[in-house]
Inverse folding.
């Protein structure tokens, strides 16, 4: 039985530059990654697809979301051309979660893609956005990222400048025997959040239907300004995933 679903909607943008993927490794390891590419060019879309697979593959190999995303961050920060001040290299907000039977869930992120857990009664947000809104609440611009995959900033530099590292991570051990993991781009969660509708209203039921409902509802709520909206939902079971 498939225990995850991915849904995407281009919204009002000219091209889909969000993507999500899942990579499995021996020992029941699963890595779930979602990236939101910055921009709307074909180059950004293509790069983001490849970067999502790389993030998930590294996280699965390291058996840890933080170690995997940090490895990917270092790899892309070392790309040729980063020392050219005129180079406009692709960037993306990224979030990755790793599940391993018998171990806590690990989550890591850079940018404003998010991870949530839903158990039925409510939704727990596991991530804290890397954007100006976090640095200058409540009026900072939430669309200005303070960290992203593809940047060269260091943990120490961003900690001094913005109060958070380049890659942030957390662990979580669900108390319930079943939880639903939700990874979302800002185009998927922001319109629903702005509408002040409980996010749990969109996450129940069949996985594929719920994933479609999230992105379609977000695009409908945002209207003609709708961003790319992408969601990954995964059902996690104690003993099988954590």
């Amino acid at each position: 039985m498939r225990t995850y679903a991915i849904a995407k909607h281009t919204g009002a943008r000219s091209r889909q530059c969000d993507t999500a993927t899942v990579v499995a490794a021996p020992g029941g390891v699963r890595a779930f990654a979602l990236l939101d590419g910055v921009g709307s060019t074909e180059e950004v879309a293509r790069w983001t697809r490849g970067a999502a697979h790389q993030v998930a593959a590294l996280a699965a190999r390291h058996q840890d979301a933080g170690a995997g995303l940090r490895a990917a961050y270092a790899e892309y920060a070392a790309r040729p051309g980063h020392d050219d001040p005129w180079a406009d290299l692709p960037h993306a907000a990224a979030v990755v979660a790793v599940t391993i039977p018998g171990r806590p869930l690990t989550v890591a992120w850079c940018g404003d893609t998010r991870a949530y857990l839903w158990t039925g009664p409510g939704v727990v947000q596991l991530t804290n956005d890397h954007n100006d809104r976090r640095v200058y609440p409540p009026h900072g611009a939430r669309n200005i990222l303070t960290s992203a995959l593809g940047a060269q900033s260091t943990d120490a530099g961003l900690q001094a400048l913005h109060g958070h590292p380049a890659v942030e991570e957390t662990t979580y051990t669900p108390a319930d025997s079943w939880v639903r993991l939700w990874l979302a781009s800002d185009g998927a969660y922001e319109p629903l959040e702005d509408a002040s509708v409980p996010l749990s209203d969109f996450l129940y039921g069949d996985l594929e239907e719920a994933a479609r409902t999230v992105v379609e509802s977000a695009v409908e709520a945002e209207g003609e300004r709708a961003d790319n909206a992408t969601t990954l939902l995964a059902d996690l079971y104690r003993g099988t995933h954590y």
Notes: The mean pLDDT is 95. Residues 4-237 form a domain with the Phosphatase 2c; domain 1 fold (CATH 3.60.40.10).
